[in-house]
Design a protein that fits this description.
Blueprint: H1 2-28, H2 33-38, H3 44-54, H4 64-71, E1 76-77, E2 87-88, H5 95-111, H6 113-124, H7 129-150, H8 160-163
Antiparallel strand pairs: 1-2
């Protein structure tokens, strides 16, 4: 029985490997693939999930704010009566896109100094880990939007002292 189960697991592993290769080849055929992959933390899988969630057409959103709202990263007012200033995540948003941006933000902490600096700044402002990571994910939506709009790959920004 154990041998039969092991063969089944090995067959599933082979099938997963084939599907991963198929997803990567399909992702590479998309016109935005090179731009999306240039963003630190966005690999072939997360890039493919981003394309699948957005439909691959950024013109449908119109702005980075609308894309962030679709991902549930743009807070909406939930005021009542005289109470104002209550901002909450919208009830309806694409959870897959939020997950994609969250995971790419988490991955970028290891490979991108600019993302790490932004995360550390949010932590020093008193935000918790999850809040700082969501703020970073929201910022990455803006960056990715601008990259796709201009059809330019990601270039790390130089420090201010070096630029002067």
């Amino acid at each position: 029985m154990v041998v039969r189960l092991a063969k089944g697991v090995m067959a599933l592993d082979d099938e997963i490997t084939e599907l991963d290769a198929l997803i990567e080849t399909r992702f590479q055929q998309h016109p935005h693939a090179e731009v999306i992959r240039s963003l630190p933390g966005m690999g072939a899988r997360l890039g493919a999930e981003f394309i699948a969630a957005t439909g691959g057409d950024m013109d449908a959103f119109g702005s980075a704010d609308r894309l962030a709202g679709f991902a549930g990263q743009a807070p909406q007012p939930r005021d009542s009566g005289r109470v104002s200033g209550n901002l909450r995540r919208p009830r309806r948003y694409h959870r897959g896109l939020l997950r994609t941006m969250y995971l790419s933000a988490m991955a970028s902490l290891k490979s991108c100094p600019a993302s790490k600096a932004y995360y550390q700044r949010k932590r020093s402002e008193g935000k918790g880990h999850k809040q700082a990571l969501l703020a970073l994910a929201r910022r990455r939506v803006n960056v990715l939007w601008a990259m796709l709009r201009d059809r330019e790959c990601y270039e790390p920004s130089r420090p201010v002292a070096e630029a002067a």
